[in-house]
Amino acid sequence: MNFKTTIALLIVLIALFCASWFLGVFSPQSQKSHKAPVIEAKKSLLIAPKLKGPKRIKLEIRGRGYLVFENNKGKWTIVEPIKAPAVSWEVTELISTFGDAKKLETFVPGQGDYADTTLADTGLDDPLMKVSITDKDGRVIKLLVGRNVIASEDTYVKLAGSKEVFIVDQNIRKRIKRDLQAYRDKQLWEINKDKITELDYVHNGKEQFKFVKGKKGEWLMLAPVRAKADKEKIKDALDKLSDLSAEEFVEDTFEGKLSPYGLEKPVWKITIIKTEEIKPKKKSKDKNKGKNDKKKTSTQPTSKPVIKKTKYVLLIGVKSGLGKQQVYAKRADRKWVFTLKEDDVNKFLPDSVKWRDKKIVDIAKSDLSKIEITGQGEKVVLEKKNASWRVKWEGKFVSCDTNAVDELIDSLVSMTSAGFVDNVNNKFLRQAGLIRSEYTVKLSLTNKLEPIVLNIGKTSPSGLYRYIHRNGIEYVCAVDIDNLKKILRPVLVYLDKQMLKFDLDDVTEIKLTRKDRTYHLKRTKGKNNWQIISPIKASADKEKVKNILLSCATLQAEEYVSHGRLSRYHLARPNIKLTIITTKTVPVIQATKPASTQKAKQKQKIKYKTVKETISLIVSRYKASVYAALAGKSNAMVAKVSSSLFDDLSAELIPTKIFADIDKDKIDRLDIIRRNKSLTFVRKGDSWSYPADPIFKVDKGKLEKIITAMSELKARRYVDFSKKHINKYGLHRPYLKVVLKAGKKQYWLAIGTNSPAGRFAISSSKDWIFEISVSDANKFDKTLKDLAK
Description:
alpha+beta
């Protein structure tokens, strides 16, 4: 090892020795470090064995002041330096802190192992906390709390007047609140919100608001105007008021210092009245009463319950500073000034509009028995009988549209006011059209003698609302015009929307008159077997007839548009008239007198008779809508109906399939004749050819499409059942003729001129002239080039 290396090692050893000295590794015994002692198994509690049932506690925090607590029936209160409720559990925790503590070690500073430890080292010469606890027997223990043991959660504690210091296993400095305000209960009061019966507000010493609870639990506003209060707004206010807590306590012992807080003349004075019924205590029986005592024949009158009212008054001042969004407040019966959250205060401050019930008709739907709506020269009368609603029509009550009535009732009970006019006088009533109102709604109830009457006047200046005044209230409501549309509707709205009522099985005849002809049908054997009597005799199309009857039996008016005035909807000369004849057998009971010698009851003999009933309906299409009415009445109800009714009544009732027996597999020749030109195609086996030009390649699939179109062809309608007017339809020399041959059988179709919705045609299967669609006609109108492969 050379000299330089030896010097370097020496320097390192010196550095390590110095560091060890400062870290205490080699420090002398006089510099004793106080390590946290190890907890032994059996150690006595500090306080619990000595104190039973603490009744009074004094807590002093160095530089923070003091509080004195007293226990009354298990509830802790602050009695010094102020009288105020305490947070009981926090005080209980204070006691538990000492009650749970265990002595780990006991010593006297300056003696034994702690000869170098002074009282100042423990922090008990000027203790952080002083706690004095008095139990129910008057015994007192006074404790001083010092520092924590170095590098430990343990704490130095001693009894006042004693030299001994304890090390306990609790971090008392942390468990005890240093802020004395933490022991003060911030809840202002405990009020059962269900027993609050009155809320009184005074704003700036002038404006008053008053709310009272009714016998049925409903809340009423008595000032500034008499009205029903909004139950949700009242509920929110009661929830907040009954459990109100302070944010900060500002002043406890004011002496004429309320002005800076705005509490000398408060912004709001709120009075809460709680009402309780105190029932009298039952008298205990006299156990010493002798057995031989005479029993009293009269009973003593029971004492009545006592009504106890408790008043709580809260004063609200100005906003507190420093942008805390708080306001100053004070209980009238306490000296403390505190702050409340501004948001909390806003939840219980009244508003004459927002706190008012917006419902105009607050009733149960089931209580309504009659509704009368008068206005615009018309009166709607709806009456409930045996749980069913009826409407008055032409002097008598008839069945009505229950959906329309339900919609009306829903609109009435859900109608709310968008605003209120409280300063109501005759001048305003006249301007609002409420002295002679445009509409009147009268609602009769099963459980009340006096009806609810709504007078509906003019629109407000904005044109968005209408004024409504209800009997029994002082103010006028403004209701959205759109909300009134479902209420102020004509009587037609409430008529039964089912226009025809008959049993499908009772229909025996149908007469259907259209512009071109009238069909007369009779039912033959079977429910759905119909025979056309005129204009020709033929079997009717079962499905088409069934559709007509179903459409009529279930016919519902989408809306009634007129009472009479048929010509306005083209019903004076309708497009279609339908007559349905029903026949049914009904029993006729005839009474026969018994023989004179018999005293038996009259015997009843049942006979049957056949009753026929005729129902007629007229239908027209006008401006893309379909209208219908019962025929035979000039003042009949005109209804807008589904367009499907017109389609069903316009359908062809004769079976429309033109060829019933074409066997596509047996067709061996196809001719397409256009004026004097003809295209002939022949099939041999499974292939087709064009004999006029053997080189031409025929597309087999295209020819088969023509054959299929012929076999499936249906007429749109039949135009004429005679060939006398064949020239009229361009069929004496048709522009196109298609002929199919299957051996000796031949099927042909001749197509003539254009019809209103297609082409006129005639066929080999029927002598009737009919109409086919343009698309069907185009399936046959092919040139040779169109059929090439």
